[in-house]
Structures are given as C-alpha cells and as structure tokens.
Write a structure and sequence with these properties.
Blueprint: H1 4-16, H2 21-24, H3 28-41, H4 46-58, H5 62-75, H6 80-92, H7 96-109
C-alpha cells in the first residue's frame, strides 16, 4: 500500500512499543478493534488517527478512512506523508481535484 504499512507500523511501535498484532498480520478488522480504545484515549493523536485511517483504507472503507486521514493531515500539517496518504484516499473516493491539492502540499513540503 504505497509503503504505508511500514510507516504505520513504525508509528505504532513508537506509540505503543510494539506494532498491533492485527495490523502486522494484515487482519485489519482486529487492528481496528485494537485502535478503538486508543482513539477514545487519544482522539487528537496524529499517529492514532493516521493508523486508523490506513486500517480503514486497507479494508476498502475509504469514506471512513478519509475522516481519520484528514485529521492526521490537520494534526501534522507539515508532514508530507500525511498529505500523500490523504491524497491517495481522495483519489479512491473520486475526489481528484481535492487529491491534487493534497499531492501538491506533499510535494511542497518534501520536493
């Protein structure tokens, strides 16, 4: 998934000292369950929102993924990966003009 799995695993490791078992095993429904208590506890966490968005995206739930990926990009507006992940998700939703804006932000941040 465009290198997002590795990035998300590193984020989880930094946040929780070990990657989520469900995410590492590509059991995204299990990973989603693992993330729910973290979302409740850390609703404004870039890492938790980004990983949750990636989990929903991996399950093809792009509308739900978009909510969390937008949060992640808002929480860390200078992170090019956050904008790239959001842009890819927007392409999946057929929102090409919005995706282009996010891709441009990513390129401006990391040419």
């Amino acid at each position: 998934m465009w290198g997002r799995r590795r990035t998300a695993s590193l984020i989880w490791t930094a946040l929780c000292s070990q990657p989520p078992r469900g995410y590492e095993a590509k059991d995204y429904a299990e990973a989603q369950k693992e993330l729910e208590p973290l979302l409740a506890r850390f609703p404004n966490s870039f890492e938790v929102n980004e990983l949750t968005g990636l989990v929903y995206a991996a399950q093809g739930q792009d509308d739900e993924a978009n909510r969390y990926l937008e949060n992640a990009a808002r929480f860390k507006p200078k992170d090019p990966t956050a904008h790239t992940n959001l842009a890819v998700n927007l392409v999946h939703l057929g929102k090409d003009s919005l995706a282009e804006v996010e891709f441009r932000k990513a390129v401006e941040l990391d040419p």
